[in-house]
Amino acid sequence: MADFIQSGRQWYAANEDKIENYKRALTLFTRAMRSCPCARGLKRGRCTCKDFEKVASQQNSIYREAMYTCHCDVGRSFSKCDNLHHIEALDLRAATFVAMGLLGHAMKDAEWILELAPQLPDGYLRLGNIAHLQENDDFAWKMYTSGIEANQNTTVESSPKLLQLYEARKPLNRLFFRQDPLYLPAEIVTQIFSCLACDELLHCLGVSKQWAYMLTSPIYAPLWRDMTFSEWGGGPSNDELRKMLSWAGDGGARKIVTQRNMALTDSMLTMLLEASPSLEHLEFLDLPVDLCFPLNRKTWNRLRYFSFKKSWLASHDRFAADLVGELPHSFLQNAASSLEHLEVTGIPAQWYDEVPLIPHLPNLKILRMSGTVRINVPFPMYPLSIAFPSLEQLFIGPGLSHLDPAPLSIWRERRQDIWPHLKVLIFELNWPRSQRHVDIDTRLMLHSLMCLNRGKPLQHIRFHFEIYEYMLCMVSGIVDSLFSDFDDDRALDFQNLRSFSSNLFCLSPKEARTLLSNAIQTKRLTSFDINFPEHTGANHPTSRDLSHLRSYEWARGAPSIQEMGLYHFHFWQYPEDHEHHPLAEFVATFPNLRTLSICSLYYDWEQPELARLVDMILRVTHLETIYMKDVNHTVFAQLRQAAQQRGVRLMDISYRRQYQWPVRLEA
């Protein structure tokens, strides 16, 4: 047999008269096959009972088909054969047919190899290769995979053909490698299914009995401890909720997030909370107005995050003190020992009362609160300092129309004691206000908050106003100045400030130096904004902006600055051949500046001039990102091209920038 095979190989490899040489090689390979002892001197034919492609399409075992399926005389007359010369001769004959373009004949020989020796990789490899040539990649991938599975106890190092199976299958894996994820390690399964909302996970139980059994087993209890419901689901039934809580194991849910369209009832809420004594994160979006929290004294001593949104203020007179059970006051008070993060949208009416009913949360560090635009009632801030004495991050708005600084004398006299660790102060407003006394009170309150403990703990200050520019005149009381009665500025020290951001407040030279200079000297300030003074008259450019810019000479070249905002400026229009602009020269002095926000309504009618200015800035800086208005306008086409050539991203400033919350603090 070996001699026939060797001679056949020589004829196959001969370069002259290929077709005739292939035919001679086929004759020799055939003689080698027929001389195998398994034929016992008889003419051994091929079994035609097997249909490997049909078996593969039905996801059944190709190995079992090759091993056991036979209804003809071949199976009764001849046994399996793993004679390597027999298998090699058939494989070479199939390869010769492929070289001659006779794929049908090659397929039959490959199937014959598989019939003779289903435990060897040779037949799977040859059959898969031919299927791939026929562009039947699905069948090819299944054939390669079946060969790998049939040889799972064989090492790749000991079988070159098995290695070839793996290599042949590799490029097809991307299209056809489908594996039941539940067969993966438990930690990977948990990571995969944790991407689903809990009601979506509930639907997965219907895939199969095995999935239902596995996903509800104790090993996957962490999946059910995160009860985040999807936005489009209607929520589970009471019975489904009870089962989900049982699958979560001891302590129940650790995280609960309900959605606006979830049909949450009092009984469901009570069940969720009482079955989850180890709850850590609780978040409600648009709770039903008549929903009540449980009134029992159960203590949730692991709850760290609580967020709720509810129409508390449909009418200020609607809520009375005897309806405290509807508010989460008792619930929050029971969680006071652990609660660190509170987010409130729709402030409870009792927080506005003369003697406000606010839960005492001594360990609360992060507070974000917003009211409703329909209520124009002064919100008293001082009671919060008593209720939440350890606050570190405070986010007010949007939606609080007015901050009440009363009693102002206490804010001044106790500025060393109130919120001694306040590091983040954020105020947002998203509609204009025309009453000047309201603006003054708000400004006084913000001033008082900034001056707590001489401003030393503050790391981040951000005042953002979502106001249409044509309405700026309605809020001029805010624009003029940030500080009022700035009589004790020498006692202030903002040396730990990392960022100051405001798209509306214009700081006077004295205010800017007081707020920013120490932090620049300590090299801690990385970001600040400059708002230029409001223009009077016909809004013509004046030397006032140049003077305002020069008042920041002390900040020029600060190496710590990475981000800057420039707002409401209006400079003289410079000649076309003018290569210098005071604003561009100022920005260029900051060696590590990477992000610039630049916006001014005065250039809405002078966009070509703004494009020239930004192009000048591009040429003298190493920016990575620029935020500006109408960035996709045709007038900025050349600017976009110039930015692209320099690897600078031009982003539209009108799209609300997403700021991190809570803010990551530095030690």
UniProtKB/TrEMBL annotation:
Pfam families per UniProt: F-box-like
All residue ranges annotated as the F-box domain in the record: 178-227
Domain of life of the organism encoding this protein: Eukaryota
Protein name in the entry: F-box domain-containing protein
